[in-house]
């Protein structure tokens, strides 16, 4: 059993049931829907490995859904297989140009559905490995500096349309050089990895964590009020302060300083501006004694 999640959208109940049954027999978790309403939100929630999408739908057609999914930073890499009863090659051409990976023609053939889904998942697994190498930090597994900034820029544009808040926090390990000098770089790497795991566990699922560089980390917070941002940063600071890292029987404690920039309205905001403000806040936290948070 594979356990891969497959989202299927088709307004024909017979086709939807048939495709769902075929995929379930293959060991996939299937999420069937009769229409395309709120499909982006459903995709966020389900996090499917692939999407089978009918072109003809009653509320919004498959072309529009495909375009919407491919334009969103969180869903653009999910492979889409279009389902079509049309015989015009122009429809298939349009689907592929919009970013669809493959297509299945009606009437549904059991062997074809299973084979095409298996093929797209195999290809996507390979692509995900390549992507991870390009966007992830090798030591911590977090997003690297380049991709973190790319996400921040896209989030700013995305939230500009929604008129909602966005924040960027910079985290720095206090006196990290002393840790490396006293216990060695291997232990320093262990601290960096351990802190990365703590950061991931301490922030909401919708927020993004990356390694900014060296012993500095960055977090993109979305939809948080300034008060809630302060609580999240303080909880993180305290969790790190209370944690222990062990080497050769010696328990070592570390602390972090956090500088964050909160913006309620992202209209006209630039990524370098919010980063600079967060960096200034971090400098203030460190210069005023460290193991502190500063929010501007």
Automatic annotation (TrEMBL):
Any one GO biological process: phosphorelay signal transduction system
Keyword vocabulary terms for this entry: Phosphoprotein
Top-rank lineage group of the source organism: Bacteria
CDD domains: GGDEF (cd01949)
Domain Response regulatory, chain residue ranges per copy: 5-121
Lipid biosynthesis among keywords: no
Any single GO CC term annotated in Swiss-Prot or TrEMBL for this entry: plasma membrane
Matching Gene3D superfamilies: 3.30.70.270, 3.40.50.2300
InterPro entries on file: CheY-like_superfamily, Diguanylate_Cyclase, GGDEF_dom, Nucleotide_cyclase, Rev_trsase/Diguanyl_cyclase, Sig_transdc_resp-reg_receiver
Positions carrying 4-aspartylphosphate: 54
GO molecular function annotations of the record: diguanylate cyclase activity
Annotated GGDEF domain residues: 164-296
Function statement: May play the central regulatory role in sporulation. It may be an element of the effector pathway responsible for the activation of sporulation genes in response to nutritional stress. Spo0A may act in concert with spo0H (a sigma factor) to control the expression of some genes that are critical to the sporulation process.
Name of this protein: Stage 0 sporulation protein A homolog
Originating species: Clostridium muellerianum
């Amino acid at each position: 059993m594979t356990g891969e999640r497959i989202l299927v959208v088709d307004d024909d109940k017979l086709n939807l049931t048939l495709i769902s049954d075929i995929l379930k027999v293959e060991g996939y978790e299937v999420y069937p829907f009769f229409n395309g309403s709120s499909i982006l939100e459903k995709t966020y929630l389900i996090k499917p490995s692939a999407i089978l999408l009918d072109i003809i739908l009653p509320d919004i057609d498959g072309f529009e859904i495909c375009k919407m999914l491919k334009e969103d930073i969180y869903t653009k890499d999910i492979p889409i297989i279009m389902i079509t009863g049309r015989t015009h090659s122009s429809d298939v051409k349009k689907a592929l140009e919009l970013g669809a990976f493959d297509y299945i023609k009606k009437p549904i053939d059991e062997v074809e559905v299973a084979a095409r889904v298996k093929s797209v998942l195999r290809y996507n697994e390979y692509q995900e490995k390549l992507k991870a190498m390009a966007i992830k930090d090798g030591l911590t597994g977090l997003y690297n500096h380049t991709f973190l900034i790319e996400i921040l820029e896209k989030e700013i544009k995305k939230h500009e349309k929604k008129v909602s808040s966005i924040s960027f926090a910079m985290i720095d390990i206090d006196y990290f050089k002393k840790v490396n000098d006293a216990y060695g770089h291997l232990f320093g790497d262990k601290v960096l990895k351990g802190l990365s795991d703590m950061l991931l566990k301490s922030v909401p699922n919708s927020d993004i964590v990356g390694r900014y560089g060296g012993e500095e980390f960055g977090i993109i917070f979305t939809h948080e009020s300034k008060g809630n941002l302060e609580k999240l940063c303080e909880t993180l600071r305290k969790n790190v302060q209370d944690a222990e890292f062990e080497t050769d029987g010696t328990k070592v404690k570390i602390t972090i300083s956090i500088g964050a920039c909160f913006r309620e309205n992202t209209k006209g905001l630039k990524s370098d501006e919010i980063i600079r403000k967060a960096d200034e806040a971090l400098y203030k936290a460190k210069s005023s004694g460290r193991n502190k948070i500063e929010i501007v």
